[in-house]
Amino acid sequence: MLTPQLERINGELHYEGVALSDIATRFATPTYVYSRKAILDNFVAYQNAFSALNPLICYAVKANSNLSVLATLARAGAGFDIVSAGELRRVISAGGDPRKVIFSGVAKRADEIAFALSQDIYCFNIESESELHRVNDVAALHGKRARITFRINPDVDPKTHPYISTGLKSNKFGVAHGDAIRLYALASTLPGIEVHGIECHIGSQITELSPFVDALRRLLALVDQLAARGIRLEHIDLGGGRGIVYADEKLAPMTEFAKTVADELRGRSMHLLLEPGRSIVGDAGLLLTRVEFLKHGETKNFAIVDAGMNDLIRPTLYDAFHPVEAVSANSVAPTRYDIVGPVCESGDWLAKERLLSLREGDLIAVLCAGAYGMVMSSNYNTRARPSEVLVDRGNAHVIRERESFEDMVAHEHVV
Ligand SMILES: *Cc1c(COP(=O)(O)O)cnc(C)c1O
Q1: Is 314's C-beta closer than 6 angstroms to any atom of ligand 1?
Q2: Centre of ligand 1 from the C-alpha of residue 162, in Å
Q3: Are 101 and 121 a contacting pair, CB within 8 Å?
Q4: pLDDT band for position 1 (50/70/90)?
Q5: Residues with Cβ < 8 Å from 107, sequence gap 6 or more?
């Protein structure tokens, strides 16, 4: 298999038993395609590896917020990590349990806090002193107490791309490690606040274990200092950030990750929370696109496809690598192509210097596009966002229709 559930049968790529060429015929291109089994297998891998700790696994909705993806995970018992009231409404629409929801993000509005309190979410992850006061005020106003953690910035280097590193002193996220004791002491005096846990989230696409261990140890040192001051915490949340294999990354095995965390937590009765996003959906989705034109330049060859940076921005935003496969095997001589889109920007590329056998009109699959793909898409160039299809044991279901022109202009007024 190329990625989970993706295999070549008689030269044709099949995803969880469905030919990608059939999906293109039925639903056109560009289209995001996800495998339900691949998503579930990724979730179950966490459940199994961490089973001794019985963690609450809160899927980070922002990685892929399609209602069917959320429903798939909700039915498997997942909690959810949200960063907006909109994401909470998605979780509820998908049948998720709000009492398994944690609310992250640096700028929660008062109305979002009130809505989350009305749904009795599990916990607010507080990122600043001002936010602590806002949550306290809103809770007190509604006669409630909000369960909180502080998101601690442990100042560890996750050794990942600067745009997706979040646990360094220079990042906007969390409260400084050195401020934590004072803030917990303050929080424990506020009537609208119930101090409940401690959290960190140090970055994304982390392939090594050591940054997680460093962060966990720094959090546990705080837990002990707080206990000495009579502040007892019930849960510890290690955030998300586990990487996936896009190219040739060496990823520490999940079982080793779980065992390392379990060793660090030995002898403590704290409930563990995790917030994985990318590692649940990243390798469980692909972007299906068609070659419009092949352009052979003097120094470069371009395959111009019908998906662009508005559909998948990760390559140009993070210089990210996604594997690319021709959907149908053919006997054309392989040529080195840059895969570029139709958008009027030189940054509109999906892949560079890939050796592929292509003809105009062929389909290609951009792999590992299940996380931070569709959710980051836009209408730039008045391009309708792609449809989304879920394959499930040999059947393909549309889980989001392709946008129409009317959808795109629905909220505009000519004055
Ligand atoms: C984005 C985010 C996650 C998920 O990160 P992944 O790298 O996708 O696992 C988890 N927690 C918080 C607070 C986030 O912002």
Answers
A1: no
A2: 15
A3: yes
A4: confident
A5: none
Whether residue 165 has its Cβ less than 6 Å from ligand 1:
no
What confidence score (pLDDT) does residue 244 get? Answer: 98
Q: Is 199 in the pocket of ligand 1 (CB under 6 A)?
A: no
Alpha-carbon torsion angle 302, 305, 308, 311, nearest 10: -150
Whether the pTM exceeds 0.90: the reply is yes
- Centre of ligand 1 to C-alpha 242, Å, is 9
Q: With bands split at pLDDT 50, 70 and 90, how would you rate the model's confidence at 167? A: low
Q: Which domains occur in the chain, in start order?
A: 6-35+282-409 (2.40.37.10), 105-274 (3.20.20.10)
Question: Which of the four pLDDT bands, split at 50, 70 and 90, describes residue 17?
Answer: very high
| Contact (CB, 8 A) for 175 and 218 | no
Beta partners for 14? 7, 19
How far is residue 355 CA from its own chain's centroid? 29
| Residue 214: Cβ within 10 Å count | 17
Pocket test for ligand 1, best of 62, 64, 108, 205 (most atoms within 8 A of CB): 62
Q: Is the CB of 279 under 6 A from ligand 1?
A: yes
Q: Which residue type does 68 have? A: S
